[in-house]
Amino acid sequence: MSDASFSTTGRRRQLMSDPSRVRITGPLAAFAAGFAAELSAQGYRLNAAANQLQLLAHLSRWLASRRQDATTLTASVLDEFLNARRAQGYTLWLSSKALTPLVSYFSNVGIAVASAHAVLSPSEALLERYRKYLLDVRGLVATSARGYVDMARAFAVTRVVDGELDWKCLRPENLIQFVLSASRGRSTGSAKLTVTALRSLLIYLHIEGFIAQPLDTAVPSVAGWRLAGLPRALETRDVQRLLAACDRRTHHGQRDFAMLMLLARLGLRAGEVRMLNLDDIDWRAGELVVRGKGQRIERLPLPADVGQALAAYLRRGRPDTAQGRTVFVRTRAPHRALSSGGITEAVAAAASRAGLPHMSAHRLRHTLATQMVRSGVALPEVAQVLRHRRLMTTSIYAKVDREESCRNWPAFTVRPATCVRTTARNSCRMPS
Protein backbone atom coordinates (compact mmCIF):
# COMPACT_ATOMS: atom_id res chain seq x y z
CA MET A 1 0.00 0.00 0.00
CA SER A 2 1.38 3.41 -0.96
CA ASP A 3 1.89 6.20 1.58
CA ALA A 4 -0.96 8.14 -0.03
CA SER A 5 -3.33 5.17 0.21
CA PHE A 6 -2.31 4.52 3.80
CA SER A 7 -2.89 8.16 4.65
CA THR A 8 -6.32 8.14 3.02
CA THR A 9 -7.31 4.97 4.87
CA GLY A 10 -6.12 6.44 8.15
CA ARG A 11 -8.14 9.61 7.62
CA ARG A 12 -11.21 7.56 6.76
CA ARG A 13 -10.87 5.54 9.95
CA GLN A 14 -10.38 8.71 11.95
CA LEU A 15 -13.56 10.18 10.49
CA MET A 16 -15.48 6.97 11.24
CA SER A 17 -14.40 7.14 14.89
CA ASP A 18 -15.42 10.80 15.32
CA PRO A 19 -19.03 11.10 16.57
CA SER A 20 -19.32 14.66 15.24
CA ARG A 21 -18.68 13.36 11.71
CA VAL A 22 -21.62 10.94 11.70
CA ARG A 23 -24.34 12.32 9.42
CA ILE A 24 -27.89 11.48 10.48
CA THR A 25 -30.94 12.15 8.37
CA GLY A 26 -34.55 11.14 8.77
CA PRO A 27 -36.97 11.20 11.70
CA LEU A 28 -34.34 10.48 14.38
CA ALA A 29 -31.95 13.29 13.40
CA ALA A 30 -33.36 15.51 16.15
CA PHE A 31 -32.16 13.05 18.78
CA ALA A 32 -28.56 12.82 17.55
CA ALA A 33 -27.03 15.61 19.66
CA GLY A 34 -28.73 14.51 22.87
CA PHE A 35 -27.81 10.87 22.29
CA ALA A 36 -24.17 11.83 21.63
CA ALA A 37 -24.07 13.84 24.86
CA GLU A 38 -25.57 10.94 26.81
CA LEU A 39 -22.97 8.53 25.44
CA SER A 40 -20.20 10.91 26.43
CA ALA A 41 -21.64 11.29 29.93
CA GLN A 42 -21.72 7.51 30.32
CA GLY A 43 -18.02 7.23 29.46
CA TYR A 44 -18.20 5.83 25.93
CA ARG A 45 -15.01 6.31 23.99
CA LEU A 46 -15.11 8.22 20.73
CA ASN A 47 -15.08 5.15 18.47
CA ALA A 48 -17.77 3.39 20.53
CA ALA A 49 -19.95 6.52 20.54
CA ALA A 50 -19.47 6.86 16.78
CA ASN A 51 -20.59 3.25 16.29
CA GLN A 52 -23.76 3.93 18.29
CA LEU A 53 -24.51 7.06 16.27
CA GLN A 54 -23.98 5.17 13.02
CA LEU A 55 -26.49 2.62 14.25
CA LEU A 56 -28.90 5.47 15.01
CA ALA A 57 -28.32 6.87 11.51
CA HIS A 58 -29.13 3.52 9.90
CA LEU A 59 -32.28 3.11 12.02
CA SER A 60 -33.38 6.63 11.09
CA ARG A 61 -32.92 5.97 7.35
CA TRP A 62 -34.77 2.67 7.66
CA LEU A 63 -37.70 4.31 9.46
CA ALA A 64 -37.82 7.05 6.82
CA SER A 65 -38.08 4.44 4.07
CA ARG A 66 -41.12 3.02 5.86
CA ARG A 67 -42.57 6.48 6.60
CA GLN A 68 -42.36 5.90 10.34
CA ASP A 69 -40.93 7.91 13.23
CA ALA A 70 -39.79 7.38 16.83
CA THR A 71 -43.34 7.08 18.14
CA THR A 72 -43.85 3.87 16.15
CA LEU A 73 -40.90 2.06 17.70
CA THR A 74 -41.75 -1.25 19.33
CA ALA A 75 -39.75 -4.35 20.13
CA SER A 76 -41.09 -6.03 16.99
CA VAL A 77 -40.19 -3.02 14.82
CA LEU A 78 -36.63 -3.10 16.16
CA ASP A 79 -36.45 -6.83 15.43
CA GLU A 80 -37.50 -6.11 11.84
CA PHE A 81 -34.79 -3.45 11.62
CA LEU A 82 -32.10 -5.88 12.83
CA ASN A 83 -33.30 -8.48 10.31
CA ALA A 84 -33.09 -5.87 7.54
CA ARG A 85 -29.61 -4.94 8.71
CA ARG A 86 -28.49 -8.56 8.48
CA ALA A 87 -30.05 -8.89 5.03
CA GLN A 88 -28.07 -5.87 3.83
CA GLY A 89 -24.82 -7.60 4.75
CA TYR A 90 -23.91 -5.82 7.98
CA THR A 91 -21.71 -7.93 10.25
CA LEU A 92 -21.67 -5.81 13.42
CA TRP A 93 -24.32 -4.56 15.87
CA LEU A 94 -26.90 -7.15 14.87
CA SER A 95 -28.40 -8.10 18.25
CA SER A 96 -30.99 -6.38 20.40
CA LYS A 97 -28.24 -5.77 22.96
CA ALA A 98 -26.59 -3.37 20.50
CA LEU A 99 -29.72 -1.21 20.63
CA THR A 100 -29.85 -1.07 24.43
CA PRO A 101 -28.12 2.35 24.78
CA LEU A 102 -30.46 3.87 22.19
CA VAL A 103 -33.60 2.36 23.70
CA SER A 104 -32.50 3.54 27.14
CA TYR A 105 -31.95 7.07 25.83
CA PHE A 106 -35.37 7.15 24.18
CA SER A 107 -36.91 6.08 27.50
CA ASN A 108 -35.08 8.88 29.33
CA VAL A 109 -36.49 11.51 26.96
CA GLY A 110 -40.03 10.20 27.30
CA ILE A 111 -40.29 7.89 24.30
CA ALA A 112 -40.87 4.41 25.68
CA VAL A 113 -40.23 1.65 23.21
CA ALA A 114 -43.29 -0.52 23.61
CA SER A 115 -42.58 -4.16 24.26
CA ALA A 116 -44.35 -6.81 22.32
CA HIS A 117 -46.66 -8.40 24.87
CA ALA A 118 -45.92 -12.03 24.30
CA VAL A 119 -48.46 -14.48 25.66
CA LEU A 120 -46.90 -16.28 28.59
CA SER A 121 -47.02 -20.03 28.66
CA PRO A 122 -49.04 -21.58 31.53
CA SER A 123 -45.89 -22.47 33.44
CA GLU A 124 -44.35 -19.01 33.00
CA ALA A 125 -47.59 -17.30 34.05
CA LEU A 126 -47.65 -19.41 37.23
CA LEU A 127 -43.98 -18.74 37.94
CA GLU A 128 -44.55 -15.00 37.58
CA ARG A 129 -47.29 -15.15 40.23
CA TYR A 130 -45.02 -17.28 42.38
CA ARG A 131 -42.25 -14.69 42.05
CA LYS A 132 -44.61 -11.93 43.25
CA TYR A 133 -45.59 -14.13 46.20
CA LEU A 134 -41.93 -14.52 47.16
CA LEU A 135 -41.39 -10.76 46.95
CA ASP A 136 -44.61 -9.52 48.55
CA VAL A 137 -45.46 -12.24 51.05
CA ARG A 138 -42.20 -13.96 51.86
CA GLY A 139 -40.18 -10.74 51.71
CA LEU A 140 -37.32 -12.14 49.62
CA VAL A 141 -35.02 -9.79 47.75
CA ALA A 142 -35.31 -9.77 43.97
CA THR A 143 -32.17 -11.83 43.33
CA SER A 144 -33.24 -14.58 45.75
CA ALA A 145 -36.75 -14.67 44.27
CA ARG A 146 -35.32 -15.00 40.79
CA GLY A 147 -33.14 -17.90 41.94
CA TYR A 148 -36.13 -19.74 43.44
CA VAL A 149 -38.15 -19.20 40.25
CA ASP A 150 -35.31 -20.40 38.02
CA MET A 151 -34.93 -23.60 40.04
CA ALA A 152 -38.70 -24.21 40.23
CA ARG A 153 -39.11 -23.75 36.47
CA ALA A 154 -37.73 -27.21 35.67
CA PHE A 155 -40.48 -28.80 37.77
CA ALA A 156 -43.31 -26.57 36.56
CA VAL A 157 -42.75 -27.48 32.91
CA THR A 158 -43.11 -31.18 33.75
CA ARG A 159 -46.72 -30.55 34.80
CA VAL A 160 -47.84 -29.16 31.42
CA VAL A 161 -50.30 -31.52 29.75
CA ASP A 162 -51.98 -30.55 26.47
CA GLY A 163 -50.92 -26.94 26.95
CA GLU A 164 -52.33 -26.66 30.49
CA LEU A 165 -50.87 -27.19 33.95
CA ASP A 166 -52.05 -30.39 35.63
CA TRP A 167 -51.85 -30.31 39.43
CA LYS A 168 -54.74 -32.68 40.19
CA CYS A 169 -52.67 -35.74 39.29
CA LEU A 170 -49.62 -34.64 41.28
CA ARG A 171 -48.48 -37.42 43.60
CA PRO A 172 -45.54 -37.86 46.02
CA GLU A 173 -43.95 -40.35 43.64
CA ASN A 174 -43.81 -37.61 41.00
CA LEU A 175 -41.85 -35.44 43.41
CA ILE A 176 -39.43 -38.25 44.26
CA GLN A 177 -38.87 -39.02 40.58
CA PHE A 178 -38.21 -35.35 39.78
CA VAL A 179 -35.72 -34.90 42.65
CA LEU A 180 -33.81 -38.04 41.61
CA SER A 181 -33.66 -36.82 38.02
CA ALA A 182 -32.80 -33.20 38.81
CA SER A 183 -30.09 -34.14 41.34
CA ARG A 184 -28.22 -36.42 38.97
CA GLY A 185 -24.83 -34.91 38.13
CA ARG A 186 -25.27 -31.95 40.49
CA SER A 187 -23.24 -31.07 43.53
CA THR A 188 -24.80 -31.68 46.94
CA GLY A 189 -25.29 -27.97 47.53
CA SER A 190 -26.96 -27.41 44.16
CA ALA A 191 -29.28 -30.37 44.67
CA LYS A 192 -30.28 -29.07 48.12
CA LEU A 193 -31.16 -25.69 46.64
CA THR A 194 -33.37 -27.40 44.06
CA VAL A 195 -35.19 -29.30 46.82
CA THR A 196 -35.65 -26.10 48.84
CA ALA A 197 -37.12 -24.29 45.83
CA LEU A 198 -39.44 -27.21 45.08
CA ARG A 199 -40.78 -27.26 48.65
CA SER A 200 -41.34 -23.51 48.51
CA LEU A 201 -43.28 -23.84 45.25
CA LEU A 202 -45.45 -26.62 46.70
CA ILE A 203 -46.28 -24.47 49.73
CA TYR A 204 -47.37 -21.69 47.37
CA LEU A 205 -49.49 -24.11 45.30
CA HIS A 206 -51.27 -25.28 48.45
CA ILE A 207 -51.89 -21.73 49.65
CA GLU A 208 -53.39 -20.78 46.28
CA GLY A 209 -55.56 -23.91 46.18
CA PHE A 210 -53.89 -25.58 43.20
CA ILE A 211 -53.24 -28.70 45.28
CA ALA A 212 -55.57 -29.91 48.04
CA GLN A 213 -52.95 -31.36 50.39
CA PRO A 214 -49.57 -29.90 51.44
CA LEU A 215 -46.97 -31.96 49.60
CA ASP A 216 -43.79 -30.14 50.63
CA THR A 217 -43.13 -32.78 53.31
CA ALA A 218 -43.17 -35.46 50.60
CA VAL A 219 -40.12 -34.01 48.88
CA PRO A 220 -37.13 -36.23 49.74
CA SER A 221 -34.04 -34.72 51.30
CA VAL A 222 -30.66 -34.77 49.61
CA ALA A 223 -28.06 -36.92 51.33
CA GLY A 224 -25.39 -34.58 52.57
CA TRP A 225 -23.94 -34.28 56.03
CA ARG A 226 -22.83 -31.06 57.64
CA LEU A 227 -19.08 -30.74 58.13
CA ALA A 228 -18.49 -33.72 55.82
CA GLY A 229 -16.18 -31.82 53.52
CA LEU A 230 -13.11 -29.69 54.03
CA PRO A 231 -12.97 -26.11 52.75
CA ARG A 232 -10.45 -25.76 49.96
CA ALA A 233 -7.96 -23.07 50.85
CA LEU A 234 -5.14 -21.49 48.88
CA GLU A 235 -1.56 -21.51 50.07
CA THR A 236 0.00 -18.19 51.05
CA ARG A 237 2.20 -18.10 47.97
CA ASP A 238 -0.88 -18.65 45.76
CA VAL A 239 -2.66 -15.68 47.36
CA GLN A 240 0.43 -13.60 46.63
CA ARG A 241 0.48 -14.77 43.02
CA LEU A 242 -3.22 -13.97 42.66
CA LEU A 243 -2.72 -10.41 43.89
CA ALA A 244 0.41 -9.94 41.79
CA ALA A 245 -1.58 -10.95 38.68
CA CYS A 246 -3.41 -7.59 38.81
CA ASP A 247 -1.60 -5.00 36.71
CA ARG A 248 -2.00 -1.95 38.93
CA ARG A 249 -0.70 0.33 36.19
CA THR A 250 -4.14 0.05 34.56
CA HIS A 251 -7.58 1.12 35.78
CA HIS A 252 -8.79 -2.46 35.38
CA GLY A 253 -5.92 -3.82 37.47
CA GLN A 254 -6.39 -1.24 40.23
CA ARG A 255 -10.05 -2.17 40.52
CA ASP A 256 -9.42 -5.91 40.59
CA PHE A 257 -6.59 -5.56 43.12
CA ALA A 258 -8.82 -3.60 45.50
CA MET A 259 -11.59 -6.20 45.17
CA LEU A 260 -9.18 -9.09 45.77
CA MET A 261 -7.81 -7.37 48.86
CA LEU A 262 -11.32 -7.09 50.30
CA LEU A 263 -11.96 -10.76 49.55
CA ALA A 264 -8.60 -12.02 50.83
CA ARG A 265 -8.09 -9.76 53.86
CA LEU A 266 -11.62 -9.33 55.18
CA GLY A 267 -13.31 -12.45 53.77
CA LEU A 268 -16.15 -10.51 52.17
CA ARG A 269 -18.59 -12.30 49.91
CA ALA A 270 -18.82 -11.30 46.25
CA GLY A 271 -22.26 -9.80 46.83
CA GLU A 272 -20.95 -7.73 49.74
CA VAL A 273 -18.15 -6.34 47.59
CA ARG A 274 -20.67 -5.53 44.86
CA MET A 275 -22.91 -3.60 47.26
CA LEU A 276 -20.09 -1.57 48.83
CA ASN A 277 -20.99 2.10 48.54
CA LEU A 278 -18.77 5.18 48.60
CA ASP A 279 -20.59 6.32 51.72
CA ASP A 280 -19.85 2.97 53.41
CA ILE A 281 -16.15 3.81 53.82
CA ASP A 282 -15.36 5.74 56.99
CA TRP A 283 -11.80 6.84 56.30
CA ARG A 284 -11.30 8.68 59.57
CA ALA A 285 -12.51 5.82 61.77
CA GLY A 286 -10.90 3.17 59.56
CA GLU A 287 -14.12 1.18 59.14
CA LEU A 288 -16.35 -0.29 56.44
CA VAL A 289 -20.11 -0.72 56.45
CA VAL A 290 -20.85 -4.18 55.03
CA ARG A 291 -24.30 -5.11 53.78
CA GLY A 292 -24.38 -8.85 54.32
CA LYS A 293 -26.78 -11.74 53.90
CA GLY A 294 -30.30 -11.34 55.22
CA GLN A 295 -30.06 -7.55 54.82
CA ARG A 296 -27.74 -7.37 57.83
CA ILE A 297 -25.61 -4.22 58.11
CA GLU A 298 -22.37 -4.45 60.08
CA ARG A 299 -19.22 -2.42 60.56
CA LEU A 300 -15.81 -3.96 59.96
CA PRO A 301 -12.32 -2.59 60.58
CA LEU A 302 -10.48 -1.37 57.48
CA PRO A 303 -6.87 -2.62 57.50
CA ALA A 304 -4.29 -0.14 56.24
CA ASP A 305 -3.27 -2.13 53.16
CA VAL A 306 -6.90 -2.64 52.10
CA GLY A 307 -7.53 1.08 52.60
CA GLN A 308 -4.52 1.93 50.46
CA ALA A 309 -5.76 -0.35 47.65
CA LEU A 310 -9.22 1.22 47.80
CA ALA A 311 -7.80 4.76 47.87
CA ALA A 312 -5.58 4.06 44.85
CA TYR A 313 -8.55 2.75 42.86
CA LEU A 314 -10.80 5.65 43.84
CA ARG A 315 -8.15 8.22 42.98
CA ARG A 316 -6.96 6.81 39.66
CA GLY A 317 -9.02 3.80 38.61
CA ARG A 318 -12.70 4.60 39.11
CA PRO A 319 -13.97 6.51 36.05
CA ASP A 320 -15.36 10.00 36.46
CA THR A 321 -18.41 8.90 34.48
CA ALA A 322 -19.29 6.14 36.96
CA GLN A 323 -23.03 5.84 37.47
CA GLY A 324 -24.31 5.67 41.03
CA ARG A 325 -22.44 5.49 44.31
CA THR A 326 -21.20 1.90 44.25
CA VAL A 327 -17.44 1.65 44.71
CA PHE A 328 -16.79 -0.89 41.97
CA VAL A 329 -18.08 -0.27 38.45
CA ARG A 330 -17.53 -1.67 34.99
CA THR A 331 -14.37 -0.58 33.23
CA ARG A 332 -16.22 -0.43 29.91
CA ALA A 333 -19.03 2.02 29.22
CA PRO A 334 -21.63 2.38 30.45
CA HIS A 335 -19.87 2.51 33.80
CA ARG A 336 -22.62 0.88 35.84
CA ALA A 337 -22.24 -1.01 39.09
CA LEU A 338 -20.33 -4.26 38.78
CA SER A 339 -22.37 -7.42 39.35
CA SER A 340 -21.50 -10.29 41.69
CA GLY A 341 -20.81 -12.37 38.60
CA GLY A 342 -18.39 -9.71 37.40
CA ILE A 343 -16.47 -9.95 40.67
CA THR A 344 -16.27 -13.74 40.40
CA GLU A 345 -15.10 -13.39 36.79
CA ALA A 346 -12.37 -10.98 37.93
CA VAL A 347 -11.13 -13.56 40.45
CA ALA A 348 -11.19 -16.32 37.83
CA ALA A 349 -9.31 -14.12 35.34
CA ALA A 350 -6.64 -13.26 37.92
CA ALA A 351 -6.26 -16.96 38.74
CA SER A 352 -5.82 -17.76 35.06
CA ARG A 353 -3.13 -15.08 34.66
CA ALA A 354 -1.38 -16.39 37.77
CA GLY A 355 -1.42 -19.96 36.46
CA LEU A 356 -3.78 -21.16 39.19
CA PRO A 357 -6.82 -23.44 38.79
CA HIS A 358 -10.23 -21.89 38.19
CA MET A 359 -11.71 -20.55 41.40
CA SER A 360 -14.60 -18.48 42.68
CA ALA A 361 -14.51 -15.43 44.93
CA HIS A 362 -15.68 -17.55 47.89
CA ARG A 363 -12.43 -19.51 47.76
CA LEU A 364 -10.65 -16.51 49.27
CA ARG A 365 -13.12 -16.43 52.15
CA HIS A 366 -12.35 -20.10 52.87
CA THR A 367 -8.64 -19.32 52.63
CA LEU A 368 -8.83 -16.52 55.18
CA ALA A 369 -10.73 -18.65 57.69
CA THR A 370 -8.45 -21.66 57.21
CA GLN A 371 -5.26 -19.69 57.71
CA MET A 372 -6.69 -17.96 60.78
CA VAL A 373 -7.38 -21.35 62.38
CA ARG A 374 -3.91 -22.60 61.42
CA SER A 375 -2.47 -19.50 63.10
CA GLY A 376 -4.22 -20.39 66.36
CA VAL A 377 -7.19 -18.01 66.20
CA ALA A 378 -10.15 -19.39 68.17
CA LEU A 379 -13.32 -20.34 66.29
CA PRO A 380 -15.50 -17.67 67.95
CA GLU A 381 -13.08 -15.02 66.69
CA VAL A 382 -13.10 -16.57 63.20
CA ALA A 383 -16.90 -16.46 63.31
CA GLN A 384 -16.69 -12.79 64.28
CA VAL A 385 -14.53 -11.95 61.26
CA LEU A 386 -16.69 -13.99 58.86
CA ARG A 387 -19.89 -12.61 60.47
CA HIS A 388 -21.49 -16.04 60.86
CA ARG A 389 -24.77 -16.03 62.76
CA ARG A 390 -24.12 -19.44 64.27
CA LEU A 391 -20.87 -20.94 65.49
CA MET A 392 -21.95 -24.23 63.88
CA THR A 393 -21.36 -22.61 60.48
CA THR A 394 -17.78 -21.83 61.46
CA SER A 395 -17.11 -25.25 62.96
CA ILE A 396 -16.27 -26.69 59.53
CA TYR A 397 -12.89 -25.00 59.90
CA ALA A 398 -12.18 -26.96 63.09
CA LYS A 399 -11.15 -29.82 60.81
CA VAL A 400 -8.18 -27.83 59.50
CA ASP A 401 -4.85 -29.28 60.67
CA ARG A 402 -3.61 -26.66 63.12
CA GLU A 403 -0.12 -28.18 63.18
CA GLU A 404 0.40 -27.54 59.49
CA SER A 405 2.84 -24.73 58.86
CA CYS A 406 1.28 -21.60 57.39
CA ARG A 407 4.55 -20.35 55.87
CA ASN A 408 4.65 -16.55 55.57
CA TRP A 409 0.95 -16.15 56.37
CA PRO A 410 1.35 -13.46 59.08
CA ALA A 411 1.36 -10.80 56.34
CA PHE A 412 -2.24 -11.72 55.57
CA THR A 413 -3.59 -12.87 58.94
CA VAL A 414 -6.61 -10.94 60.21
CA ARG A 415 -6.67 -10.65 63.97
CA PRO A 416 -9.80 -10.03 66.01
CA ALA A 417 -11.65 -6.88 65.05
CA THR A 418 -10.51 -4.80 68.03
CA CYS A 419 -6.83 -5.13 67.12
CA VAL A 420 -7.33 -4.40 63.43
CA ARG A 421 -9.57 -1.42 64.13
CA THR A 422 -6.85 0.26 66.19
CA THR A 423 -4.26 -0.30 63.47
CA ALA A 424 -6.57 0.96 60.71
CA ARG A 425 -7.52 4.13 62.60
CA ASN A 426 -3.87 5.11 62.99
CA SER A 427 -2.59 4.26 59.53
CA CYS A 428 -5.43 4.69 57.00
CA ARG A 429 -5.94 8.10 55.46
CA MET A 430 -8.73 9.69 53.47
CA PRO A 431 -7.87 9.85 49.74
CA SER A 432 -7.24 13.32 48.46
Task: Give your account of this protein's structure.
The protein is built from 18 helices and 5 strands. The chain has about 425 residues and is mainly alpha-helical. The protein has 3 domains: about 5-110; about 120-220, Orthogonal Bundle (DNA polymerase, domain 1); about 235-425, hpI Integrase, Chain A (Orthogonal Bundle). Strand 1 (about 160) and strand 2 form a beta hairpin. The longest helix has 20 residues, at about 45-65. The two termini are about 50 Å apart. The relative contact order is 0.08.
Summarize it.
With 432 residues, the protein is mainly α.
Please tally the helical runs, counting DSSP H or I stretches of 4 or more residues.
18
DSSP E strands, number: 5
**How do the strands line up in the largest sheet?**
3-4-5
Q: Give the class from helix and strand content and strand pairing.
A: mainly alpha
Q: Summarize model confidence as the mean pLDDT.
A: 84
Query: SSE order, as H and E?
Result: HHHHHHHEEHHHHHEEEHHHHHH
- CATH domain topology of the largest domain: hpI Integrase, Chain A
CATH superfamily of the largest domain: Intergrase catalytic core
Low-confidence segments, given as residue ranges, are 1-13, 401-432
**How does the major sheet shape up?**
3 strands, antiparallel
How many domain regions? 3
CATH uppermost class of the largest domain:
Mainly Alpha
